[in-house]
Amino acid sequence: MKKTIVSTFLLSSILMACTGTNSTVEKTATEAKLAVMSAAENASDVEQSKALLLAKWEGPYQGVPAFDKVSLAGLIPAMEEAMKINLAEIDAIANNSASPTFENTIVAMERTGKDLARVFTYYGIWRSNESSPEFREIQAKMAPTLSAFFSKINQNKALFARVQAVHNSDEVKSLTPEQQRLVHLTYNGFSRNGATLDGDAKKRYAAINQKLAELHTKFGDNVLADEENYVLYLTKNQLGGLSESIISSAASAAEARDHKGEYAITNTRSSMDPFLTYSTERELRKKVWDSYYSRGNNGDEFDNNAIIAEILQLRHERVGLLGYKNYASWRLEDRMAKSPENAIKLMESVWPAAIARVDEEVADMLVIGEAEDGIEKIEPWDYRFYAEKVRKDKYDLDSAEVKEYLQLNKLREAMFYVAGRLFNFEFTEIKDGSVPVFNDDVRVWEVTDKTSNEHIGLWYLDPFARKGKRSGAWATTYRSYTTFDGKTNVLSSNNSNFTKGVDGEPTLISWSDAETYFHEFGHALHFLSAKVAYPTLNGGVRDYTEFQSQLLEHWLATDEVINNYLVHYKTGKPMPKELITKIKQAAKFNEGFKTTEYLASALVDMKFHTVDPTGIDAQKFERDTLAALNMPESMVMRHRSTQFGHVFSSEGYASSYYGYMWAEVLTADAAEAFEQSPGGFYDKDVAAKLVEHLFSVRNAVDPAEAYRAFRGRDADVKALMRDRGFPVTK
Question: Which of 178, 311, 407, 535 is the most buried (most CB within 10 A)?
């Protein structure tokens, strides 16, 4: 973001240079004058920034965010003004003297909040992509304010009475199925979030929300602090086993942190994972592992254990006010799983096969570890390293060799190819500067229909890690598709944390990271293919929305992608057929590790939210839960509790991390629909059904109904077991 505030020090220097006096009286007068001028200037900057943050987006493509002009200076007043406007809009609907109807209540609500949505777009960028100490102060201050704002809407009795009246009216019967779902989702959003409460219970519900907002923010900030504070700097003699591309990336990361000549292993998954996979320095592997898996658990000012306990207690108390026995029961009521018992049943049906496969994997690793290095036990910091050796031994497959064919830019082209074949989308990069970006690393493409050349939207890509950017990979939208007030196009964004190649060298990534790249692009395609009328219907059901993105991962391994886009970064030659064969033969390799580390996190998340958390000790609870599950000692949860941002830095995945596996059942089953079709993964008829029933409808159709429309039946869990190479029982 461009900063527009002029330095007060610089202003003082200029004015003092012009006075040409050292008189004490004149100096005092000048300082007073400077103070007035500085205050006026700052006030002007704040007003200008506020106006820009609130302004309707201008420029091409129905307007785009002014990322190049806005600053933090006016963020708080802009948010306060936008909330004020939104509350006035809501009050006008709530106090309407006309009888409640779908149009004057439900649709009227869909038209509100546009000013706040624009401010939130910038807020989201500062929070996720361009965070700074200054922003974190603002975030901490605004979190309870925002919570109170949303509580005012959710607990507006007059508004809920109108929504309830429409929900219970005969008018609903005459509405379209899409409109009926909108009414249902709107009513449900109120009834499940405190609208039915009165008196002290209502006040307490709002107070809990405010406190949770503070705690969620603090949790996320603590994890980010540990990611930024723990960086391992290496010298040349500590690079044993690392490939040229990893060394180049580490050198680039060190130089970016003013450690030129050294090599930085940062405290993020994209840096940690390859180091643990290839480094021959066992003690350094342990050090990197300890730093990564101890985030938020170091007993210092950034420790998250007490925060977890308080979050769990408050969540439990809050849903108790609504009459639910635990948080998970409340959360899953409107999900595909419907209850925590159903979600746990699915996970526990897969768990035994997963840990049994881990035992097999560890046994294979220990044979090599004992023979080559004399180790007697596979420790968690050994798992990736010896798994890679087993991969080479069993399949003669070297992940470092595979990585040389996985260039970030070529993979992006491959994704565009898949989008063209399945969705008929064309991606054209915008290079004329007409679309502002928030960082020089960000690039933008226009998305059009290949046949009609109709404009669909824009796709922003922010691929590289940097200080202030949260870890991981994610997709989001700055504007979603709607038609109820004229068609609006989509502004979608993908964000990753790859380590940039040094000196113009291409960025090379692992096969796992390439799958994640495709995964997040699947979310973007879900946004871009939307054909819904109302904003609310662009939302999603958490244990369903990961399905579309998980499904897209399958196209990475298709012959069309491998043969045309996976080319060597130096020679430009396509991946050899023998290497392709090895990749496909090893496709299910290490599935025990991948499934177990995920399921452990999902099960602990669910257990956290199905018990009375009074006096809970997060670390002890985690240990005891994993022990009861017979968690293998050679590995840990994918997300330890103190760094589990999915669950504790917001409520998005709280008691819902299982949703990835629920969605994977759909994914595996849908993939088989393509595999069994005449055209394989590029079959036109199956692709058309996919777009029509599973992508374009977003949340306008119940997910279970949508899937049945695509497949002709419910998904079969056996498809998941087959996909992972686990035994399938009848």
Answer: 311
